[in-house]
User: What shape does this take?
Amino acid sequence: MEIRPTHTPLRELLLLADESEASVADYLPRSRCYAAFEGKTIVGQYLLLHTRPFTAEIINIAVTSSRQRQGIGTALLRHAIGTARVEGFRMLEIGTGDSGTGQIALYERCGFVRCGIDRDYFRRHYPSPIIENGLECRHMVRLRMDLHEIRPAE
Ligand code: ACO
Assistant: This one.
C-alpha cells in the first residue's frame, strides 16, 4: 500500500465519511486529497484542509468498507500528521459525530485530544437526523493535536 496525493478522490468514500453532498461540495475544492493505493485501486483516502492560520483539519477520511479495521485508517491518520508537520502547520484538527465512539477512540489513539463540542452541529447543517450505533449523531466532537508538542504513538 502506498499513500500519495490524488486529484481524483472516490466520491463514494467522500460520502461514506460525510453523507451531506452539500457539505462535501463546500470543502472539496479547498482541500487536498491523499489516497492509500493498492496497485491502481484506492482503498482509503483523506482530505486535508487549511482552515485558520497555522491550522489544518482532516476534514474527511474513509476506508473502503471491506478493508476497514485492518490498519489503513491509522496509516492515513499518521500520514496526515506527518504531512501537516512537514508543511509547517502548528495544529491539526479533526471532528466527528458524538455517536461515532469507534472513530473518536481511533483519533485519540493516534494522539488527538478532545478540545470541545460543536453543539447541535448535525441538527443545524444536515437535513434529516443521522442515526449511528442506535444514537442520534447530534453534536460534533472536536479533537486536535499540537504538532509542536505531541508525537503520536508509533
Ligand atoms: N466501530 C468501532 N470501532 C471503530 C469504528 C467503528 N465503526 N471505526 C473505527 N474504529 C476504531 C476501533 O478502535 C478500531 O480498532 P479495532 O478494530 O481493534 O476495534 C480502529 O478504529 C480501527 O483502526 P483502523 O483499522 O486503523 O481504521 P480503519 O481502517 O477502519 O479506518 C475509519 C477508520 C476511517 C473511521 C473507517 O472505519 C471508515 O471509513 N469508517 C466509515 C467512514 C467514517 O466514519 N469516517 C470518519 C468520519 S469523521 C471524518 O471524516 C473527519
Q: What stands out?
A: The beta strands are 2-6, 31-38, 41-52, 55-63, 91-97, 113-118, 131-132, 135-136, 140-146. Helices lie at 11-17, 21-27, 72-86, 101-109, 121-125. The chain has a mean pLDDT of 95.
